[in-house]
Amino acid sequence: MIPTLEVVLGSSRYYACEVCGMIYADSDTARSCESWCSAHGSCNMEITKRAIGKIRRAGLRLKRS
């Protein structure tokens, strides 16, 4: 299972693809995006149309606590 980057804004929790920076409401979609981006070096429009935002500095690897 691919770990996802959690993004917490107030009381809401979102999940981001660590490759392209797209943010999703659920971790399964973020994992699908990260798998696709890693394998193909591009984004999949069918996945990214479910994105709710984007992290400004995509590709930034953060240390997990």
TrEMBL record:
Residues 12-39 form the DUF7128 domain. Pfam families: DUF7128. This is DUF7128 domain-containing protein.
